[in-house]
Amino acid sequence: MVIVVPIQILRNIISIYHHSDFYLIEFFKEFFSNSKILFIFVGMKKNETQQKEGQFKTKSKFVEFVGGKGFVNFLSNEAFIMGNQLSGLEMDGLKFKLTIYDNMTVDFEEVDTNQTTKEQRARLIEIIEEKTITSYRNRTVVQELDFTSTTKVKDKYVSLYLAVETPKPIDKLASMFDESIQMSIGALDNLNNLLESWIDDEDDPTNISYEDVNQGSDDSYIQHHYTTGIDVTSKIQESFQTLKDTKLMELKSSKDKKEQELHKLEYQLTTIENSINQAKDDIKLIEDRIDDLQPKETPTGYYFNVSERQNEIVVLEPEIEKIIKDKVSKVKGINSEAFMKLFTDGEFHIKLGQMVDGKLVILESIKELSDEVFSRLVKLNLEVDTDKFIYRGELSWSQVVNKMIKLGFEESSEFNELCDIKTKETISHLPI
């Protein structure tokens, strides 16, 4: 019996898509049981290119991209996919285009960016092949990845799934038997269709006869198949959503574990910092005791004067100190510990003098010092000015004086008075 599909059905379908990039690609008839059903497929127009081979070889055959609404299939050989579906945060914001060729090769390139290497993209293709597959619109598709069309339909991109080629059920069954057994092509096709009907999750549209179509209007025929397609698509989307929800729970659990580890490490860091500070204090105390017990070095023949503290002591509240330290620690190239010492370290000016013709004279230039004397002063980590040394550090005024005496410099009240007079004269000559 020859079945003719009402022309109005075809006109209705074409009228929906005639302004888009979709076009009618084939009509075919398939004989199953005692009825003939006409399948209508509408697909995206595939890009015509002279390139016959892609950059990457796939282990399994990528057939096409497929999506659909109701009884209409959308087909394409290329589609977009976002990188975060394949490799997490490091690919966030990257967009890729996958193009399929007939010889088990593909092209996989970034769109508008160039941040990945060929080796990285090859690994991403392997990830695609490792994803779970399922049945969708009489095809085997990768169910965990959402592709989108490269062209718009009615100002919208179409959701697509990657169809891959898998061994037919009849091929798996035939592999169990002697290869010498031969079956006709027709028998193989019928058996293959039967096996596929057992494992196919979707409702088989071939079970609808021509008489069932004629019982309603053309619109009801289209609506019936459209609703069936929505139901199937909804099941796929619900399955994907379940997988996403499961993955979300896993990520949240992983985040909680990482936060617990972070709190533990922060506590350990605080403990270590306290231990370090305690060790520094112990070392300083030991150094002070060593200085007390260590004998004086041989006299240098120079007198010294240590000025009063030249900077003010800044006492910060613990909360403010913590805020400043945290802010400074984020600035690259600045040692936060050294920076905080600017608020606490003292600054003292050290002048040297010597006896000349029975009279004390202030040293006018540091360059006049011998190398042996200069090497002693290096132990205090002094800064050198034209006519004086500058000490900046944790030592108090009395500690600096004791250090100078231990290094072989002499203290004299007469030299101190001379330096005070010199300092006052210098201040009096400063411009107001």
Tell me what the structure shows:
This protein is an alpha+beta fold. The chain has 2 domains: 7-244, no CATH class; 298-428, no CATH class. Helix content is 43%, strand content 24%. The protein contains 12 helices and 18 strands. The protein has helices at 7-17, 84-87, 118-130, 169-174, 185-199, 210-214, 218-293, 318-329, 336-344, 371-377, 397-406, 413-428, and strands at residues 22-32, 35-44, 56-57, 62-69, 72-76, 78-82, 95-100, 105-110, 133-136, 139-142, 147-153, 156-164, 303-306, 346-356, 359-362, 383-384, 389-393, 410-411. The strands form 4 sheets. Strands 4, 5, 9, 10, 11 and 12 form a 6-stranded antiparallel sheet that branches. Strands 13, 14, 15, 16, 17 and 18 form a 6-stranded mixed sheet that branches. Strand 9 (133-136) and strand 10 (139-142) form a beta hairpin. Helix 1 runs parallel beside helix 7 (218-293) and helix 8 (318-329) runs antiparallel to helix 9 (336-344). The longest helix is centred in the middle third of the chain and has 76 residues, at 218-293. The relative contact order is 0.08.
Q: Could you give a quick summary of the protein structure above?
A:
The chain is an alpha+beta fold and 432 residues long.
End-to-end separation in angstroms reads: 117 Å
Helix-strand topology string: HEEEEEEHEEHEEEEHHHHEHHEEHEEHEH
Mean pLDDT: 76
Our estimate of the beta-strand percent is 15-25%
Alpha plus pi helix count: 12
Give the helix proportion (percent range): 40-55%
